[in-house]
Amino acid sequence: SSWKKCDFETDLCKALHELNLQPGWIRKNGRSGMGPPYSDHNGSDSAYFLSLSSETQSSSATLRTNVFLPTTEHVCQITFHYWISKMSGILIAGFQKHTENTITNIWQDSGELQDQWKVNTITINSTEKYEV
């Protein structure tokens, strides 16, 4: 009942640490001229999304949400659209309790169906504060 939408049209969304946008991630749209995808999941070439830069030489890049409150009263569902190209590796969603140092992988896709937008929803239940 109190969902929030994040579409990257004006910024990096309140759910993401702007200072925690690791090197390699860029905010772009299909008109940016930086290679596929050339539109967002709705087919708009002017809509913004996050992408890994083709110049990224590192083996991984991370996005981290702000801290979410425990899900005792509400269910937390995060729905996201993603694109995996032929050059991609594995896209992983992880979960970290605020009181722990370990990250638990809760979803991944290795890109068997490449060069197309896909959608996924993850549901999170936690009795503690957490980040995704």
From TrEMBL:
InterPro entries: ConA-like_dom_sf (IPR013320), MAM_dom (IPR000998), MAM_domain-containing (IPR051560). Pfam families: MAM. Residues 4-132 form the MAM domain. Gene3D superfamilies: 2.60.120.200. GO terms for cellular component: membrane. This is MALR1 protein.
